[in-house]
Design a protein that fits this description.
YchJ-like_M; 23% helix; 4 strands; alpha+beta; four-stranded antiparallel sheet; YchJ-like; UPF0225 protein SYK_16660; Nuclear Transport Factor 2, Chain: A; 162 residues; NTF2-like_dom_sf
């Protein structure tokens, strides 16, 4: 039975991330490595997450935290937002993505701009910066003609809404 790859490519796992995770092939681009790393989290292939790290990144690798996140999360999907360089002929690349998951029923999103480097023909994850999305408003929006929430007694448009 064939199974779609967790990375969202639309390909079957065996023709997508499995060759990279199993070590039978090297990811040809930074994005392919990033997708394979996401699939490794989903499939609990924790060794791949370690071997795909740049040497200087290994010292900060916390195997227990990686294992816990991989096993506790219900992985909901991957969205690639943008890539900069990271093609087969490049030596550096950046991939911005969101990994969506749920823990204990709470849906969360990890958005990151990841940095990759190719050494001796092989791509490695170097580090990443968290990227925040637009602010999420939790309270209802105040209408222009409603009383100002600051308590002044004035309409919002004549007070804090100016």
């Amino acid at each position: 039975m064939s199974q779609k790859c967790p990375c969202g490519s639309g390909k079957e796992t065996a023709q997508c991330c499995t060759p990279y995770i199993s070590g039978k092939a090297d990811a040809p681009t930074a994005e392919a490595l990033m997708r394979a790393r996401y699939s490794a989290y989903v499939l609990n292939e924790l060794d791949y997450l370690k071997v795909s790290l740049a040497p200087e990144t290994l010292k900060g690798h916390d195997e227990e935290s990686v294992r816990e996140w991989s096993e506790k999360a219900e992985w909901l999907g991957l969205t690639v937002h943008d890539t900069w360089a990271g093609l087969e002929d490049d030596t550096d690349g950046i991939v911005e993505f969101s990994a969506n998951y749920a823990i204990d029923g709470e849906e969360l999103s990890h958005r990151e701009r990841s940095h990759f480097r190719k050494d001796d023909g092989k791509w490695y994850y170097v580090d990443g910066d968290m990227v925040s999305g637009p602010p999420v408003r939790k309270e209802p929006k105040v209408g222009r003609n409603e009383p100002c929430p600051c308590g002044s007694g004035k309409k919002f448009k004549k007070c804090c809404g100016r």
